[in-house]
Each structure stands twice: as structure tokens, then as C-alpha cells.
Amino acid sequence: MSIVSMATSEVVLQVLSGAAPRLLSSDLGSSSSDLALYSKCHFKSVKKKGSRYFKSLKCSSMIRYHIGSYNYRRLVGGFDRNAAINRLGLLGFKCQQADHGSGVGMDEGNGAPFVDNANESNLSGSMNSQKKLEFEDSELLKREKEMLASAGTGTTTFYKSGIDSIEDEAWSLLRDSMVYYCGSPIGTIAANDPTDSGVLNYDQVFIRDFIPSGIALLLKGEYDIVKNFILHTLQLQSWEKTMDCHSPGQGLMPASFKVRSTPLDGDDSATVEVLDPDFGEAAIGRVAPVDSGLWWIILLRAYGKCSGDLSLQDRIDVQTGIRMILRLCLADGFDMFPTLLVTDGSCMIDRRMGIHGHPLEIQSLFFSALLSAREMLTPEDGSDDLTRALNNRLIALSFHIREYYWIDLVKINEIYRYKTEEYSFDAVNKFNIYPDQISPWLVEWMPHKGGYLIGNLQPAHMDFRFFSLGNFWAIVSGLATTNQSHAILDLIEAKWADLVAEMPFKICYPALEGREWQIITGCDPKNTPWSYHNAGSWPTLLWQLHSLTVQIHT
Length: 554
What we know:
By secondary structure, this protein is an alpha+beta fold. The chain has helices at 2-5, 8-16, 32-38, 87-91, 127-151, 158-176, 207-219, 223-236, 291-307, 311-314, 316-330, 360-376, 384-404, 409-416, 440-445, 468-477, 482-494, 496-499, 514-521, 542-552, and strands at 41-48, 52-59, 63-64, 69-74, 81-86, 94-95, 178-181, 184-188, 205-206, 256-264, 267-278, 406-407, 452-458, 461-467, 508-509. It catalyses: Hydrolysis of terminal non-reducing beta-D-fructofuranoside residues in beta-D-fructofuranosides.
């Protein structure tokens, strides 16, 4: 996790800050290599399962059977050198690309274009304190040099094995998981475990799973793969408006996609590469993803802020994709709340875990995506209604979450005094919550100082579980107030042994156990108590925790 957590906070803050200026803005257009790449790709309708059709991308280039080397500039582990990796082992077959010689990282930036000058204002402190710190730093550096010298040049030192080699190994694993399409990297697979034979769909590129990889690559200045990912997933977006209940709705982004090689029509000696998207029709549980489009908007905003290439977000097709996602999320329905109504398993917790309704994770990502989209939308004829609806939803959503999702000891005491069955526009207990719903574990677990946003809110139901991702992004995006953000961190600190322990970070707390686990999960063997989505440990949550802790203390 050291790859991402070093500088992620600056990226996230710049991405989601509506008032922040657009740094490193430029009017860069598409390069000739970009045009060479995308002019060779076109849409193809492939018949699937009788009457079903799915939209896929086909690269019509001929296939060559040879091993090629893919050079990239390596900037990790304290050294800089050209390295080569075997594309045949990662891709199998590769498409010829005329006049396209870009590597994984064409832009050799340091991945940190944002300079945090906040600390410069604090340089007027005591001179004695400054000298003391300088002395301590020099002494620490001196001791490190002595340790390195005593270890000898032929020995792998603790510093190198403990820091450089770990980061090298992490980057190596990340690059080994890259997926190539027409010779260019377009994402990373969800899991890369050579010892596991049951890959299921973990060998596909998931939009939500690529976000940590994309952030890491942006921080290293390797913008091409993120750009390729954004454009190819945009081309896989459902653009057709139909009334077919078995077809994805207009604007829906796929949960994942896979690069498949199929024989070329009329030529058995060549094959074509096809991007096969999955909108949930083949997923376990057959649930369409709600968070994919939200993550896509957030990553697009991150790309623009990190690379300075705002021409990508200003493209007509990208603007159209943003608007279709917004219209899908802001469309009228049977629900009369500002929150998004979703089914179980439609986000990171993609299995049955009792989160159907208005889960906090979706609402936090929804708020972040709305903020990001507002910064990227270009004015055009007929867009006033969409902009007005976006701004109105931001106001209503922030009030709803801050007011009704918040829980602490004060709120628990209020719920105990709730009156029920109130029929009035001025009712205090608007959702008819019965005090008996408060679980005994909540009263014992809640610290005197601290609080959090509950996992879900529906009529006569409050899910009091602590969901990490939803609370983290509520802080990062500004959905939670300043006081609430501090209180969430106070609770994490007070309950560190429960939420972090020795294997960080639990996706939720507490776990569903016993009869409750049987009823809610349907006796899911993967989501047994304290594993996977049922309060399992997810180290990928650490970079988001790091982001919010830096934000809250700056």
C-alpha cells in the first residue's frame, strides 16, 4: 500500500475540491499515437445466447505470433532504469500498431504535480525548535549511514529490503496484472493468484478495482494506461435507450470487461481482440453495477488534475458519457429521497449482505461524482436543467446524509425518546424508527467521544453497522461536516482494536453472525463472519484512510 498512500491525499483533495483552481491546464489535443490507436478500433455487435446481443470493441489489426519487449521507464525503489517485460506472457497475442510506440509510461513526470504550500506558512516558529529538529534529522541520517556502512556493500541492507524491495515487488505485481488490448495497457485484472485455479471473473478488469491502480499510476506520472482505460470503458458504456428489461439502461457503465481473442472472419490464420463487457448479466447474483459510473467520473477528474490534460474531459464523447451517467442517476422514479435506491450487491459489497435500499457507500460516491461532474461539465444548449438538477441534488443529499445518517451517543438518546406512528409534515421521527431497533452492541460499542454515519436508512429501518468505505469517502468528499469528520476519526482511534487490529482495515463492523447471518446472507459460505464482505479485512482501504487523515489535519 506504500505505492498509493504516499501522496494520494493531495490528488483526492484536488480532484474533489470544487473551489480549487485547475492546475496545469492546457489545450492539448489528441496525439497522433492516440489517433492511430483508436482509429483501428470500432464497434461490433456479436450474437450471444440466441437473441441476446452485447456491444463489444473489436481491434481489426492482424495478429503476429512473437515475443515483444515493452520498455518503460522505472521510477521506483530509488533507481531509474529501462526495463523490459514480456508482453506475450501478459497478452498471449498482440495487435500490430502502426506508428504507435508509446510505452506504459510515456509521460516521465514525478506523479506529484500539486505542491502543498500549506506548511510554508508555519515556518515562522521558534528558531530553537527548528534547530532541534534539524539536529535530530541530521543525527538520524548519520545513524542510517553508519548502519549502511557497517552492513557492507555486498549485503542487502534492512533499509533496502524493508523499503525499496517491497515497493519494487508491489510495482512488479501491479505491472504483472496489467491487461493489454491492441498492444496498449488498458487496466489491471481484479486478482492475480497463480495458485488459484478457480478464477471465475477475477481475471477481468473491474472499474471499481482499477481505481487504486489508476491512482497509483497517476501518482507515478504514467497517464497513458489511465487514459486508455477511461476511453475504452466509455466506448463500452450503454448508449441505447430501450424498454427491454434485460438490457442495460442508457448510461450504465459495465462492472467489468475482458479481452477475448476470436478468429478473424474469413481468415483462420489471424484473430481479433474483442472487449467483452459484463453489465451484471453474467455476474454472480446478476446484479447491475451502480458504482461503476460514479467511479469512472471520479477517475476522469483525477486524470485531468494529475496530468493537466483537460482536453480529454472536454471531448464530445466524454461529455456525452458524463451527461448520460448523470441523467441515469438523477432520473425520476418511485423513490422520493435524494439518495440513490439500489439493490443488494450493486457496489463494492457485490454479494448479498443486506445493503439494499440506500447504502452509505453509494451515497458517498454519488456525492463525489456529482462534485467532480460539476467541475468538468462544459456549458451547452439545453444543459441548464441538468446543471440545476445536479446542484439541487447536492444540497438535498448533503443535508439528508448529515441529518439522518449520523449516529452518536446524543443521537442514540434521541432515538430512545422517539414517538412512533407520527402522521405530520413536522414529525420528528420521519422514518418511523422504533427504539427497540437499537442493538445492545451499539450502546456498548459507541465511545463517549466520536460518531459515524450509519450504513443504511429506510422506512422503519436503520442499519447501525459501521461501513468503512462510505464513511471514508464522506470525509474526503466533504459530504460529512467538519465536526462529523473529526468525530469519525475519533471513533476509529477509539475502536482501533476492532476496526484495524493486526490486519487492516475491516470493510464493516460488526459481522453478521448466527441466525442473522443465515437470514441476511442466505448462508453465504464466502461471507462467513469476519471474512470477505462480512467484516473481513481489506488493506486497500488504507490509502483512503490516509487521504482523510491528512485532509482532516490540514
